[in-house]
Design goal:
Helix content is 52%, strand content 13%. It is α+β, with helices and mostly antiparallel strands. The chain has a four-stranded mixed sheet, with no helix packed on it. The radius of gyration is 26 Å and the shape is flat.
Length: 409
C-alpha cells in the first residue's frame, strides 16, 4: 500500500487517468476536476486507504451494443476510484505480468490483438488446423470473488490491499438511481478489471502449457490449436472442467471444436489460397459491422455536407485499415472502398435534389456534357445512378482530393 501511495506512483496514475479521459461516475465528477479535488481531499483519502477503511462509490451502469445484437454492461467508476485503481494497477502489473503465459496477449504491456492473430496464424501454418474456440459466458459478470481473491492473496502480503481490491469487486452498481449489490463479477470499465481477469485465467493457461497444448488467448477469448477433430473434441470437454474449477461456464452456443476455416478470431478469419497456403482475411461479420457504421454516417437523411461526412468517415476508415493490416488480399479492401465511394456518390445525388441542380453541379466539376445529362435524367434513382454513371463523372480522385483515405494502400 505504501508503494501505491508513493508520490511518483500517484503522479503517474493521475497523468494516465487524465490522458484516458472517460465519462463521469455516479458523483458526476469529470476527470479534469480531479486535480483540484485531490488538493483538498487527498490527505483524508490517503489516511482511509492506509487504515483500510476507504469505501469506493458504486459504479455507474452503462450498456453498449455488442456485435451480436446483445448488450455489454460496463461499470463506470468515479474519477477518484479510477485514479486509485490506476495507482494499484501500476504496482501489481509488474508483479504479475512477468509470470503470465507467453500465449496470453490481452491487456498486457507491449502486447496486442494483432500479435495474437499473428501467433494464431503461425500455429495454423504448422498444421494445427483444428481449433477449440472457447467463449466464456458473461465472463466479466461471473468472476467469483473468493476464487480471485485467493489467487491475489497468495502473492500479495498487504491485507490493506486485499481489503481495497475486494471492496472494488463488491462495489454496487447504480442504474436509474438505484444501487444493486454485487456478489460476483468485475465489470468492465475500471483500470483494474483487465489485470484481475488475467490473474484468474492464468491458471487455465498454465494447465494448457503443462499438457503441451498450443494456444492463443486474448482476454476471455481462447483458441487452442490441435491437429485432429478427435483431439479438439476431447480438449473441449477437458476445458469445461478446467474453467468449472474457476466457477466459470463455457458459452456452448458460441464455443466449438471445429476446423479453423469455420471460425473467426478477433475479427479475422483464416482461408487457403490455390496453393494451400494459409491466408488471413477480415471475417464477414467484421465487414458487415464496418458497413453498418458507414451506412449510419452516410445516411441520406442526415442533413450533413459531404465535407462533414468525410470528416466522420476518416477516423473510421483509418482505424479499420490499421487493425486489418494483416489481411493478405487487397480485394477485401478494394471491394469496400468501391462500396463506400458509391455511398458517397448516392449522397451527392440526394443533396442535388433536382435534375437541373445535378446537371449544373456536374458541369462545374468538369464532367462531360453527355454524362451530366444522363446522370441528371436519373438523379432521383440515387443508388442505381451512383454506380457506373457517377463513377465516371465523379472518379475516386475526387474523394482523394477531399481527404478521404482508401483502405487499399
Amino acid at each position: 500500500m505504501e508503494t501505491v501511495l508513493s508520490r511518483p506512483n500517484l503522479l503517474q496514475a493521475l497523468k494516465r487517468v487524465r490522458q484516458n479521459k472517460g465519462s463521469a461516475g455516479v458523483d458526476g465528477m469529470q476527470v479534469n476536476e480531479l486535480p483540484a479535488y485531490l488538493k483538498t481531499e487527498w490527505p483524508r483519502i490517503a489516511a482511509e486507504l492506509r487504515a483500510g477503511s476507504y469505501v469506493p462509490k458504486p459504479v455507474r451502469r452503462h450498456e453498449i451494443p455488442k456485435g451480436n445484437g446483445e448488450m455489454r454492461m460496463l461499470g463506470i467508476p468515479t474519477a477518484l476510484d479510477r485514479f486509485i485503481q490506476q495507482a494499484v494497477l501500476q504496482v501489481l502489473q509488474p508483479l504479475f505480468d512477468p509470470e503470465f503465459s507467453n500465449s496470453s496477449y490481452g491487456f498486457r504491456p507491449g502486447r496486442s490483438a494483432l500479435q495474437a492473430i499473428a501467433a494464431a496464424r503461425r500455429l495454423v501454418e504448422d498444421g494445427r488446423t483444428w481449433v477449440v474456440d472457447v467463449d466464456l459466458e458473461k465472463f466479466f459478470d461471473r468472476v467469483n470473488h473468493d476464487v480471485l481473491m485467493g489467487k491475489l492473496e497468495a502473492r500479495i502480503a498487504d491485507r490493506r490491499l486485499h481489503r481495497l481490491i475486494r471492496s472494488y469487486l463488491a462495489a454496487g452498481v447504480m442504474a436509474d438511481g438505484v444501487v444493486t449489490e454485487r456478489h460476483e463479477g468485475t465489470p468492465q470499465g475500471g483500470p483494474l478489471s483487465p489485470l484481475l481477469a488475467n490473474v484468474l485465467l492464468d491458471e487455465v493457461d498454465k494447465e494448457l502449457e503443462n499438457r503441451g497444448h498450443r494456444f492463443v488467448r486474448y482476454a476471455d477469448d481462447c483458441n487452442v490449436y490441435v491437429r485432429s477433430k478427435r483431439a479438439a473434441e476431447r480438449l473441449l470437454e477437458a476445458l469445461r472442467g478446467l474453467y468449472g474449477k474457476l466457477r466459470l461456464r463455457i458459452n456452448e452456443s458460441k464455443s466449438a471444436a471445429a476446423e479453423v476455416w469455420e471460425r473467426k478470431f478477433l475479427g479475422y478469419a483464416f482461408t487457403r489460397d490455390r496453393r494451400g497456403a494459409v491466408r488471413l482475411t477480415a471475417a464477414e461479420r467484421s465487414k458487415q459491422k464496418l458497413k453498418e457504421k458507414v451506412r449510419e454516417i452516410t445516411r441520406r437523411t442526415g442533413g450533413r455536407s459531404l465535407e462533414q461526412v468525410t470528416e466522420q468517415l476518416r477516423p473510421l476508415i483509418n482505424g479499420w485499415k490499421q487493425y486489418f493490416r494483416l489481411v493478405d488480399s487487397g480485394r477485401v479492401f478494394d471491394s469496400l472502398d468501391s462500396w463506400i465511394r458509391r455511398r458517397l456518390r448516392a449522397l451527392m445525388l440526394k443533396h442535388w435534389r433536382t435534375p437541373t441542380r445535378a446537371y449544373r453541379a456536374l458541369q462545374e466539376m468538369g464532367a462531360r456534357t453527355l454524362s451530366s445529362l444522363s446522370i441528371a435524367k436519373h438523379a432521383g434513382r440515387w443508388w442505381r445512378t451512383s454506380g457506373q454513371l457517377m463513377s465516371t463523372a465523379v472518379p475516386n480522385r475526387f474523394f482523394d482530393e477531399r481527404g478521404l483515405p482508401r483502405l487499399v494502400a
